[in-house]
Amino acid sequence: xxxxxxxxxxxxxxxxxxxxxxxxxxxxxxxxxxxxxxxxxxxxxxxxxxxxxxxxxxxxxxxxxxxxxxxxxxxxxxxxxxxxxxx
Length: 87
Known about the structure:
Layout: E1 2-5, H1 11-14, E2 19-22, H2 27-37, H3 41-45, E3 46-47, E4 50-51, E5 55-59, E6 62-63, E7 77-82
Parallel strand pairs: 1-7
Antiparallel strand pairs: 1-2, 3-4, 5-6, 5-7
């Protein structure tokens, strides 16, 4: 199963969990599996049928550019990178 690293900003949805092991062959499947464990996390990630503009992913250290169709291997490491403001 792929390992997903969850940002600290979202600990309210994950009840403090910072990572999860989930199955899936694409980023879309990974997000669905993650939402099954932590309901509501998909709503923070997606806008409709796409990844929202406020979130990026890396899969095995590479920025995911194919959106939900990005391939994921069973041993992949996936980092969720939410945008944050400041000035």
